[in-house]
Amino acid sequence: MSHLALVLPYGLPPAELAADLLRELDAPALALLVARAKREPVHPIDDFQRALPHEIWLTQTLARAEAGASSPPIAAALMQSLGLQPQPGIWFVLQPVHIHIARDHLVLTDPRRLELQESESRALFSVAEPLFAETGKPLLYGDAGTWFVQADDWAELLTATPDAAGGRNIDLWMPKGKGERDWRKLQNEVQMHWFDHRLNGEREARGLKPVNSIWLWGAQRAGQAASRSEYGTAFNLHGWLRAFGQFVAAEKPAADARAALAAGPQNGLVVVDALLEPALANDWGLWLQLLQALETEWFAPLLAALKDGALDQLSLIASNDAALAYFSASRGSLKKFWIKPSLAPLSR
Length: 348
Prior knowledge:
Distance between the termini: 30 Å
Structural class: alpha/beta
Low-confidence stretches: none
Strand content: 15-25%
Shape: globular
Largest sheet: 8 strands, mixed
Helix content: 25-40%
């Protein structure tokens, strides 16, 4: 293998907590890598960017597409990854979600925390599908957490990914633009039909959150040709990121660095998303625990691979909700003995 790019969503701690969090971390391999790597300046992201920095970077790098002012155009590609063949037109990702009431606004809960089962999702889908059909918008089932709707007249809507909007006042992140009123009307109808659905009562009795709304994003015109990324193999494309599989020659799982290195691609990319869920939930204690585990599972083996020549170059793309940093390490850069290992570059 010559090059591996490791994408680490929320590998950058929030600026206001960075000093305290990094002080608690014992990660000598990561400290050596980021201290001696060549690094580009941190790229700040606009406060109202409708996708997270790592989502934007992956869209640009793998799909060679611009998210622009809206969420990444990924719906049709995601449909194909789930075995669906979209008809010509504009398709959106539609996700069943839970929205809760904060003190003075509504907040989108991380959809991963719904633990929505296949049977539950299909029951809710059967209620929503005729409501969409009445407006001339076909609704298709992908999997328990992922549905799709064709809505050519909503092509200009600006939408946000669930992770970008999660935990925030959704008024700022709801679809905006031409078709906004029609969307909200349809969303409200679905919410009313689901409000007293027996399934939600059963979920609440089991201590689970009710499924009380839907989230729209990812508009893409079906039929757009996919061009190959510079990366030959992509590892660990979970959730909607699996849509990027069609832009690489091979897609594989990799439990840790040794598994990725054993696969032997010449130019590979791996997404290590273990930090994403605790960061979105502001659970920084768990974030620390999981980052500590990554030292053993990923950073130490990758450092060893650089030192012994099994890996020529390692790129680390780390982000949080407001910025993205790019580090490039090689066997040569590790020889800068005068630079002491430090995690400080992750806080800048």
